Amino acid sequence: MARRGQIAWHSTQDAVTADDLQLPTLAPETTCGFVVPAIVAATHRDASERFLEYFAATIRNPNTRAAYMNAAADFLRFEPVADLGSLAEVRLIHVSLYIESVGDRFAPQTVKLRLAALRGLFDWLARHGVLETNPAAPVRGPSYTVKRGKTPILVAAEANRLIESIEDDSIVGLRDRALIALMV
């Protein structure tokens, strides 16, 4: 049994920790030998395969995949969830409490990323018959709006210098000057 704050892992190989988990290339006919959290393996006969498929097949960007895997692992380590017997026991309140907890530790962008990871995972499991519903679907994340853009704005003197730097002895130069003058 896992200690509080740790994930129990179900494996046909030697025991591993969460740090040892690497996403393998899936053989379509089996997931034997691949490591999944015990709470996932205890959910449904297809749960282990669907859990691995979500990360392997649906998330193409390796950085996003790593962030979503970390979010899922952190959720499964979350104390109220770690005490459950299977993912089928996860309810909306567990996800809500987790998002509140994450909101105390991280920026709103990170909270939204973690909620997106859980929504995607639970939606995948629900669509493939592992779970009846997606407990993360109705949970709302924090609101976050960008008040200031990252694109620098040219002041008038800089805009004039830019326009004057374009040679006007050709048609292309005149066109470029006109286009830039319209934009600024």
Mean pLDDT: 82
Question: Which architecture of the largest domain does the CATH hierarchy give at level 2?
Answer: Orthogonal Bundle
Radius of gyration: 24 Å
**Can you identify the CATH class of the largest domain?**
Mainly Alpha
Give the CATH topology of the largest domain.
DNA polymerase, domain 1
* Structural class by secondary-structure content: mainly alpha
How would you classify the quaternary structure? single chain
Shape descriptor: elongated
Largest sheet, in brief, is: 2 strands, antiparallel
Tell me the fraction of residues in β-strands, as a range.
Answer: under 5%
Which runs of at least 5 residues are low in confidence (pLDDT < 50)? 8-31
**Count the helices. How many?**
8
Strand order of the largest sheet: 1-2
How much helical structure, as a percent, in the residues? 40-55%
Number of domains: 2
**Overall number of strands:** 2
The SSE order reads EEHHHHHHHH
The rounded distance between the terminal residues' Cα atoms is 64 Å
